[in-house]
């Protein structure tokens, strides 16, 4: 029985039911009882494995198919009517042609299965900045994950009323056939269609598909920004909290920075950090001319490997209850392990593929993109503003990526427009979070290359246009925690120590810190970054703050080639910024 009278929902569910032919339809109400009975059912079929309920209460284990462990950008499409609206960085097929292709794959794909209908909200239900979605899926893993990552419940239908204003998301696992895997967005129809995958970002449709790809289009039309950003509050010893957003590509440190623990000496002085969000920020100009950020999600879908008591104790603590672990090592006592958790790999465990695992054979136990799905409310450093529907005012935006040589530890843009340039030229070495060769450098503007739902050059223009709505805009900086020495070792200790850099950034935002002008932007003098207790020498810091003009000249040539792909649409201001950078480099 439908649990909403909204015809736009019930008609669409009926349409999908006829096409996919499930044995039954189950309307998700989000109640703990319903979710528990679904978990029990998934334990019986093996879709989920119960973990040790004493050591990890409420936690479950999940494996995805071997061919289905990351987002698939090559099979992700933006299907708007005109190809030029999708732009050169998105895959595109004419919408009706794509729907016909998908209809064939969906036909009968839920025979023998149950169709679940999930009402969810991105943002606080009933708040002015919330957006609603309904996801149809045949996966219990998706239902229980969505209940962690988003606000699932019948109050979404109450808030929606009889309005058509919600995002339709249709997911079917089908045969998990890679050749027929599609992640498709129809931004003009507020619709997402995903098929033949069971992996996080491809199937938890509230996340990248809705809150970034579709929402970036909504933001363009409504005058705001949907960004692949963490939101961090930094509290100084005087008790003042300043907020920073950070855009780094997938698996480049957002969750870690969002949950950072200040260095011990700083903690003793009274510094505290608060996590508002670790992956997605919706940014709007406020009536006060500042930029305000909300995190539309309710949980974290974080990278497991490398998460430890030392690197990210807050993330680890967050996963100790009510968490789903995907593709990690399963120990015989019903607990989990991954590379980097500690130095004691279990010898009697199953690897992410479900095979007996011998750590001494050199193979990895957990998949490099294995993940935890955990409620934000579990996080010891969750901000008290997490549920504030107005969000938090942003003083600084930091862009960043993995650059072994080119990018310095930190630099600040001259102004907003130059900051947009700095975001647009971001590049990073590829990680395991997406298919493709790990380590290759690619341009990833604003960390949005895989997530921008429209023409990237129009998106840059939209960023530039935000300036006039902001009388008090955040400053824009670039950071790089990943510079390496000639032996390939990271030169900067990273993690909690990154606060030393963020603190300079925030002082710059308030006109409290010195800087020097360099060809690429403002940079701190070595004495502006407190090194005490890091073990980093002044020389190393000096090196981290040095740029190699030859590398940057090569960088400019590469940016020029990249920009050329956007043709006429490239905003004039960005082209000018590039010309100016080149001439400053001499
Ligand atoms: P997505 O969830 O894919 O968007 O990733 P993310 O940007 O949240 O990345 P995350 O914080 O999960 O970090 C990914 C990897 O980078 C992990 O293996 C971390 O241990 C590592 N990492 C994070 N911060 C730092 C840092 O400051 N220095 C170094 N060297 N590694 C880091
Ligand atoms: C990312 O890849 O940026 C993630 C994981 O945060 S996923 O949700 O799969 O996109
Ligand atoms: Mn991400």
SSE order and pairing:
Layout: H1 7-20, E1 24-27, H2 32-45, E2 49-50, E3 60-62, E4 76-78, H3 83-86, H4 95-106, E5 114-122, E6 131-137, H5 140-149, E7 151-152, H6 155-160, E8 167-172, E9 182-186, E10 191-195, H7 200-203, H8 206-222, E11 225-227, E12 230-235, E13 241-247, H9 254-258, H10 264-269, E14 272-277, E15 281-285, E16 291-294, E17 299-303, H11 313-318, E18 324-326, E19 329-330, E20 336-337, E21 371-375, E22 392-400, E23 410-412, H12 416-424, E24 427-429, E25 441-443, H13 456-466, E26 475-479, H14 499-509, E27 516-517, E28 522-523, H15 538-544, H16 549-564, H17 572-585
Parallel strand pairs: 1-5, 3-18, 4-9, 6-8, 8-10, 13-22, 22-26
Antiparallel strand pairs: 2-3, 5-6, 5-7, 9-10, 11-15, 12-13, 12-14, 15-16, 16-22, 17-21, 18-21, 19-20, 23-26, 24-25, 27-28
Helix pairs in contact: 2-5, 12-17, 16-17
The protein binds guanosine-5'-triphosphate, sulfopyruvate and manganese (II) ion.
Manganese (II) ion binds at residues 228, 250, 279.
Kindly list the characteristics that best describe this protein.
28% helix, globular, Phosphoenolpyruvate Carboxykinase, domain 2, 28 strands, Phosphoenolpyruvate Carboxykinase, domain 1, binds sulfopyruvate, 9-stranded mixed beta sheet, alpha+beta, binds guanosine-5'-triphosphate, binds manganese (II) ion, 586 residues, 8-stranded mixed beta sheet
Describe the structure.
By secondary structure, this protein is an alpha+beta fold. The chain folds into 3 domains: 7-30 and 74-222, Phosphoenolpyruvate Carboxykinase, domain 1 (3-Layer(aba) Sandwich); 227-295 and 386-585, Phosphoenolpyruvate Carboxykinase, domain 3, CATH 3.90.228; 299-378, Phosphoenolpyruvate Carboxykinase, domain 2. The chain is built from 17 helices and 28 strands. Strands 11, 12, 13, 14, 15, 16, 22, 23 and 26 form a 9-stranded mixed beta sheet that branches. Strands 1, 4, 5, 6, 7, 8, 9 and 10 form an 8-stranded mixed beta sheet that branches. Strand 27 (516-517) and strand 28 (522-523) form a beta hairpin. Helix 2 (32-45) packs antiparallel against helix 5, helix 12 crosses helix 17 (572-585) and helix 16 packs antiparallel against helix 17. The longest helix has 17 residues, at 206-222. The radius of gyration is 23 Å and the shape is globular. The structure holds guanosine-5'-triphosphate (GTP), sulfopyruvate (SPV) and manganese (II) ion (MN). Manganese (II) ion (MN) binds next to loops.
């Amino acid at each position: 029985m439908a649990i909403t009278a909204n015809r736009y929902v019930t008609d669409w569910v009926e349409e999908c039911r006829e096409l996919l032919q499930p044995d039954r339809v189950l309307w998700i109400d989000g109640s703990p009882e319903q979710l528990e009975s679904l978990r029990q059912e998934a334990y019986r079929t093996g879709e989920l494995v119960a973990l040790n309920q004493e050591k990890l209460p409420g936690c479950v284990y999940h494996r995805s198919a071997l061919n289905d462990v990351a987002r698939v950008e090559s099979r992700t499409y933006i299907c708007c009517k005109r190809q030029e609206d999708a732009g050169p960085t998105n895959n595109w097929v004419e919408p009706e042609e794509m729907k016909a292709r998908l209809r064939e794959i969906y036909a009968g794909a839920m025979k023998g299965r149950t169709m679940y209908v999930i009402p969810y909200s991105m943002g606080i239900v009933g708040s002015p900045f919330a957006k609603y979605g309904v996801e149809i899926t045949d996966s219990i893993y998706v239902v229980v994950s969505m209940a962690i990552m988003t606000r699932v419940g019948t109050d979404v239908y109450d808030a929606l009323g009889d309005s058509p204003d919600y995002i339709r998301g249709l997911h079917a696992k089908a045969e998990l056939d890679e050749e027929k895997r599609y992640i498709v967005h129809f931004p003009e129809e507020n619709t997402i269609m995903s098929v033949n995958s069971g992996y996080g970002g491809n199937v938890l449709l509230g996340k990248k598909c809705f809150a970034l790809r579709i929402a970036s289009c909504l933001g363009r039309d409504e005058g705001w920004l949907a960004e692949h950003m963490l939101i961090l509050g930094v509290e100084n010893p005087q008790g003042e909290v300043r907020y920073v957003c950070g855009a780094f590509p997938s698996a480049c440190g957002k969750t870690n920075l969002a949950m950072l623990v200040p260095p011990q000496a700083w903690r003793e002085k009274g510094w505290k950090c608060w996590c508002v969000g670790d992956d997605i920020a919706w940014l709007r100009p406020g009536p006060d001319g500042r930029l305000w950020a909300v995190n539309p999600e309710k949980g974290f879908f974080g990278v497991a490997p490398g998460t430890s008591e030392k690197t990210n104790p807050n993330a680890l603590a967050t996963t100790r209850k009510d968490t789903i672990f995907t593709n990690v090592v399963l120990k015989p006592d019903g607990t989990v392990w991954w590379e980097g958790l500690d130095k004691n790999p279990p010898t009697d465990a199953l690897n992410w593929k479900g095979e007996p695992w011998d750590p001494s054979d050199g193979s990895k136990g957990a998949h490099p993109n294995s993940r935890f799905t955990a409620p934000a409310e579990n996080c010891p450093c969750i901000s008290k503003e997490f549920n504030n529907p107005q969000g938090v005012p942003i003083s600084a935006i930091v862009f960043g990526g993995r650059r072994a040589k080119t990018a310095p530890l930190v630099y600040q843009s001259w102004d907003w427009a130059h900051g947009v340039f700095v975001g647009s030229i971001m590049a990073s070495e590829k990680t395991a979070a997406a298919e493709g060769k790990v380590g290759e450098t690619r341009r990833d503007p604003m960390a949005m290359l895989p997530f921008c739902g429209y023409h990237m050059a129009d998106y840059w223009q939209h960023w530039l246009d935000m300036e006039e709505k902001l009388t008090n805009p955040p400053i824009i900086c670039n950071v790089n925690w990943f510079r390496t020495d000639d032996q390939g070792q990271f030169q900067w200790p990273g993690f909690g120590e990154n606060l030393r850099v963020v603190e300079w950034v925030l002082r710059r935002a308030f006109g409290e810190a010195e800087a020097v002008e360099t060809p690429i932007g403002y940079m701190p003098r070595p004495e502006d970054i407190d090194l005490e207790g890091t073990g980093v020498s002044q020389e190393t810091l000096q090196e981290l703050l040095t740029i190699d003009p030859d590398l940057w000249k090569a960088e400019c040539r590469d940016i020029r080639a990249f920009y050329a792909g956007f043709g006429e649409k490239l905003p004039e201001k960005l082209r000018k910024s590039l010309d100016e950078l080149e001439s400053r480099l001499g």
